[in-house]
């Protein structure tokens, strides 16, 4: 086999399914040499690319939350706590960076990505309040945040037909 065809074989991609039946699954690009494993009931088991898709997506959501919540907090501190224009400017820059990070998600549907991000924003806001302001959420705050995160997972990672 020539080196050019070996390179083409290495670079060729196939589709790996996140969950559900092979015909109705969230699809992720992956290399052919890692076939999806089909279980006895006809469902596919997550492959390494699926896990990487979820990890990358979750990391981008966390980064976006840090930038958006942190940016809003900096603006709040600059205006409400009279810390000055430097804080406001840093907040505006962080908010701009948040907008860019959101575009790095693999899913091309703006509405879906932003709706899913909403769940991360809710949980992240409570966590930020705990760390930065000493806020102590009650059980209903925690329950609501967990429901939002479950909604994020359904919106972003559910099998699509």
Quick summary:
With 161 residues, this protein is mostly helical. It has five helices and four strands. Helix 2 (48-80) runs antiparallel to helix 3.
Give a structural overview:
- The protein is mainly alpha-helical.
- The chain has two domains: 3-45, no CATH class; 48-157, no CATH class.
- The chain is built from five helices and four strands, in the order H-E-E-E-E-H-H-H-H.
- The protein has helices spanning 3-11, 48-80, 85-102, 110-133, 139-157; strands at 13-17, 27-31, 37-38, 44-45.
- It has a two-stranded antiparallel ribbon with strand order 1-2. The chain has a two-stranded antiparallel sheet with strand order 3-4.
- Helix 2 (48-80) packs antiparallel against helix 3 (85-102), helix 2 (48-80) crosses helix 4 (110-133) and helix 4 (110-133) packs antiparallel against helix 5 (139-157).
- The longest helix is centred in the middle third of the chain and has 33 residues, at 48-80.
- The radius of gyration is 20 Å and the shape is globular.
- The two termini are 38 Å apart.
- Mean pLDDT is 80; it is low at 3-35.
